[in-house]
Write a structure and sequence with these properties.
The protein is α/β, with parallel strands linked by helices. It is 48% helix and 21% strand. A five-stranded parallel beta sheet has the order 4-3-5-6-7, sandwiched between helices.
Length: 177
């Protein structure tokens, strides 16, 4: 008989997930879309990711990146902020406005290191913001974290957990003024 893993909130077991399903998620190859107009940047990031076992797809512009995201549904997008014509912020806004790409995490990579640009990137839907020059280990750690978080979200969403949690929170919420 197959063993199972459980998601436990308090005294209530919410979701039972078979170990086979958990193993599939942990061993799955994930597709990362790298969007950058500069070949050297795309190649550096793509090589780094593919050496760690990720499948990588490249786009040379925001427009091409949006098209590929809609066609291929990547697990994650690494997006340069400063690109001609359609910059990374515009690309992110467009991806977040579409139901097919809304839940794909986006990690910005940029040499723009001021707080205003970081906050802007995160406030329009970016999951993370990495400043150049970057360290390989940092990029890989952030990519892995975002993919794990997306997979957890997908599991909970497909099991209807979010609706349950929203109900529990709203029915137990008391505010005193």
């Amino acid at each position: 008989m197959e063993k199972s893993s459980f998601l436990n909130l308090g005294n209530t077991i919410i979701l039972e997930i078979s170990n086979t399903f958990c193993d599939h998620i942990m061993n799955n190859k994930f597709l990362v879309l790298v969007i950058d107009h500069r070949l050297d940047n795309r190649e550096k990031i793509s090589t780094m990711l593919s050496e760690e076992g990720f499948d990588v797809l490249q786009a040379t512009s925001g427009e091409e990146g949006i098209r590929l995201a809609l066609e291929k549904s990547p697990s994650l997008i690494v997006l340069e902020v400063m690109m001609p014509n359609f910059n990374g912020f515009q690309t992110c806004k467009e991806l977040k406005s579409k139901s097919e790409t809304y839940s794909i995490p986006i990690i910005f990579i940029s040499s723009l290191d001021d707080t205003d640009n970081k906050v802007k990137g995160l406030s329009i839907g970016g999951a993370d913001y990495i400043v150049k020059p970057f360290e390989k280990d940092e990029v890989l750690a952030r990519v892995r974290l975002q993919i794990k978080m997306r997979e957890a979200f997908e599991i909970l969403h497909s099991a209807g957990i979010f609706q349950f949690l929203e109900f529990e929170i709203s029915s137990n919420l008391f505010v005193d003024f």
